[in-house]
Amino acid sequence: MFPKRTIYLQTVSPEEAVRRAKSVLERERLIKEETIASQNACGRVLSRGVHALHSSPTFHSAAMDGYAVNARDTFAAREGHPLSLFPEQNCFAVNTGQPLPEGCDAVIMIEQTVQKDGHILIESPVFPWQHVRRIGEDIVATELLFPRNHLLRPWDIGALLSGGIWDVPVWERLSVRIIPTGDEVLDFLDRPHPDKGQVIESNSQMLAALFREKGCLAERMAPVQDDPEALHQALLSSLHSDSHLTVFCAGSSAGSKDFTRSVLEKEGEILAHGIAVMPGKPSLLALCQGKLVVGVPGYPVSALVCFKELLDPIITWLMHKEPDAKNCVPVELTRSIPSRIGMEEHIQTAIGRVGNKLVGTPLGRGAGNITTVTRAQGIIRISPSCEGFNEQETVMAELSVPETLLDKVLVCIGSHDNTLDLLADELMGLPEPVQLVSGHVGSTGGITALANGACHLSGMHLFDPVTDDFNFPFLKKFLPELDVTVINLAIRHQGLIIAPGNPLHIQGLQDLTRVRFINRQKGAGTRVLLDWKLTQAGIKTSSIQGYEKEENTHMAVAANIMTGAADCGMGIYAAARALHLDFIPLALERYDLVIPTCFLQDPRIQAVLDLLASPAFQRRIESQGGYDTPLTGQIMQPGIKGIS
Amino acid sequence: MFPKRTIYLQTVSPEEAVRRAKSVLERERLIKEETIASQNACGRVLSRGVHALHSSPTFHSAAMDGYAVNARDTFAAREGHPLSLFPEQNCFAVNTGQPLPEGCDAVIMIEQTVQKDGHILIESPVFPWQHVRRIGEDIVATELLFPRNHLLRPWDIGALLSGGIWDVPVWERLSVRIIPTGDEVLDFLDRPHPDKGQVIESNSQMLAALFREKGCLAERMAPVQDDPEALHQALLSSLHSDSHLTVFCAGSSAGSKDFTRSVLEKEGEILAHGIAVMPGKPSLLALCQGKLVVGVPGYPVSALVCFKELLDPIITWLMHKEPDAKNCVPVELTRSIPSRIGMEEHIQTAIGRVGNKLVGTPLGRGAGNITTVTRAQGIIRISPSCEGFNEQETVMAELSVPETLLDKVLVCIGSHDNTLDLLADELMGLPEPVQLVSGHVGSTGGITALANGACHLSGMHLFDPVTDDFNFPFLKKFLPELDVTVINLAIRHQGLIIAPGNPLHIQGLQDLTRVRFINRQKGAGTRVLLDWKLTQAGIKTSSIQGYEKEENTHMAVAANIMTGAADCGMGIYAAARALHLDFIPLALERYDLVIPTCFLQDPRIQAVLDLLASPAFQRRIESQGGYDTPLTGQIMQPGIKGIS
Fold first, then answer.
1. Would you call the peptide bond into A402 cis, given omega within 30 degrees of 0 as the criterion?
2. Residues of A in contact with B156 (CB under 8 A)
3. Which end is more exposed in chain B, N or C (fewer Cβ atoms within 10 Å of the end residue's Cβ)?
């Protein structure tokens, strides 16, 4: 029971790994030329310079609608002394683009003529070649239209056809074969229901989309089991195919079932195993039979980093293209990010403009969590020699979205509620869409964000037993200087989430000492409410098994009950209902949005307020179950709790 | 013979035209929803918010390779006092991603263990949930993965599949029908040889490529004649098809054969005819049977402006997408640009970084010249209230290429020579490609550019009869302060370009007085040489018919001879040969590259010098005919002419 494990080789920087790949790949032999129709060549790269076959225009032509003339016939015209020209004798009606009649060398714009008694009057002379497009003015036959390795853009297609170039020599499209691996993966094509120990294979599709976005052909094969022989066959099949590049998804790490390295060693040479970047470390590059083979880590965020740091620069070079420019902007951090010396770290970060600064909220580091990427507007790169950054420090972030989008983002940091999802969805349906970027840090985390000017609004449901009021006592204590407006989002039902049918016969708090509990994190409003209820009931937290196990959202608590990892947790009704669980109500609580008053006139905040006031949105909130909306959209005042 | 003409309506700003289109188009009725497989949805926009069906992970799993344990079994371990764990009893080998065995709640990294005598030693305790990915850590079932109108990116595909979403509701792809029109257009599919009065139809393909680049489906129909009935049928056919948008290429102007407007009026309402932008003015927008119909001007640059200013914002809105951000940079102008009050003007501009500034060379304004776009790195927008800009003024330019590319550009302003095309082609073939951006302003224009620090190098072939030397006398006179290095590009054969077979029996300069001549522009080296030869021969320029007709390049001169527009012109042998014309040699001339010495160590200039020194490139120069290369790549000195 001590399976053999591959222990990592020395990690190298991504730049070094890319350099090694470029130095051994014979680009000119690997990527062939092909000839394709010019009209289909947009986005392709010319393999040779292209010279025009035809001139454009091929004749002197009218550049304006009007009358073609010989300029010397007009020299006598001047203001106040109109000159008569005679149609079909010394002036000829022409439309833009038509050839000049024999003997003409200029065009008079129609606007500068007067028609009278069958002739044409002009009051100023014209110069030779006025309003005439001359032969070859645009393109002269034989001239170089585009040099080799030029990336063709839409307007280039127009120039090619105008120059009589019907076909162009281009580099063939880079073809990639993607092979998912793993005993535990389920093929998404089977529309599976994952069981314990199984995961839906999705990295191959993310990678295929990334490759296609870069202009590659990407073919995804059926998943291969963790079996050296099957992997070897899959490798050989790819090497013998037309693919230029083979990608194995997962199996490149140091686990006992990670066979990618040993399989690649049979057919070629390992170029790099392990890069000094987190996530992304277990990346593997090999040269097999003249082709590049890449082992991409199994975690989705690692796979993405492997693509961006290794695959993208290599395929860009193979395609004779220029790398995309990175757009970096300074952001102020809403929390600190410690980092390990010796490895570059990439931190997915939610970014938005709040007031006159960009604020960045580092999202979780879990390499397995693809939603950290989908929720991020950029990454913060921490160099190997840096120990990290402090809260409120301004650092550079590399954007993954257009910078203009940051101005359309509404940053919401605080407690999480499903109603915020509804709000996010509705905001994107407005004529001027607003993107709600939310950081789930609990109600007290939201207070910190408000204090630091790091958000436009904060979701809060902090109950103060002393004053029997929500939110205001905490705002008064921790944010005495900040002028905020408190708007109710909804009234929520809080209670115990339990398994369907209540098999353990849980009746209330008193039963928590005999079941496995799952808790919310410290600072969360739900946790405050629970602790208060426990104190009232005289129950010691140490007597509750699992009290120290924390989840960060209601839904994560509910998921624990659903899967049997815990028997009971405190949360909102909506979470219980969403996962078909039972629910024992304990209390109503006010969930408010706290908005710095200076942002109240911001059109994005106004859009939120308009939505909250709309009966349709209130109905949508209530339809989730476990919410009441009598106060929704109303401004709250201290000391007026508003609920029983 | 006074055909009816449509005189323009009042022009409107592009913003106003777009506003009108948006206000009458019923987006939600026009663009339907459809359901497609998630893995094919990258680049598409969700029509509804999407909630996860599965959690990810669906089970507690190992986040590292190592041993799964129950944390409380490890609490006794400490440094110097290793604790033994027993495989398959209280510790279990796990690979990353595998489910935790029953009863385990933590993972010890393999690197922090020692195997000894069949058991596992650890020297520090682990905490509960250490190196464990918990249920729903990434995605919790029912949570909102993406709001409506979210543009799906590659990583989003991963999140959709991980969340068990196999199909997604998206807005259908925008479908565009493009109809080229005009009696004079030739269908490029026929691979035509354009005759006088004919043009190769290419705008439809540029537009199709532009639409496709934005994610639309674009269908291009066969060209339709300038016939109201045929145009009407084409319109009806498009309105009855699945297309959302119909584009007529050309026919939207005010010429006697521009029927687009009258045809559209039969089926709907004109929204705007004429926009206050040059080029692009004759754009036409109409609403016909609930669909948008656009008349795009016939000139390619006008068509492009019409797309960018009208079509792009409208289709972006129809697709529920965000407009692309514009990247604007300050550039110093190498020449003045006068502009008309009342119209916005777009000036195609060649841009590159010279020293520590970006310099911009306005390219020609001809709306018919697509090569002004293909050669430009951006545009300068001159507002309707601005009378233009002065030479050396710094103005904002809107880039059409990635900004990083500007650092790879080598700016060459001066005389034009075909050998520069060869150089441009070779430079793009280097491992670090260099883009040669050239402005054709003649040799003396090059001196001005050098004086203004507006270029990296300048092509020059100025002969000074007084000193019997090339280039140096002019550099000494006009650039006494500038330290330049002069490198020979090639020796060129200059002479008279004449029709094949020499039908007019031209023998030399003395015959110019009896034929139709075509000249080069003032300041061009060829013009200087001609004037000197004429003076030597005692021939008055006023005796030469066509002496006042100027072209800006050798090839344009040759094209005039080829088409019979002129009988004879002065130019280089290469131009005559390229168009199969005859040539009467008059002189050899030195064509040099003048490089400010401060740029000599620039890697891009070094690349040029390396190429010039290579025998292969010298052979390529000579293979054009009319060039000698004994001096190519050598540094020239004043007073040493080097040729006879």
1. no
2. 374
3. C
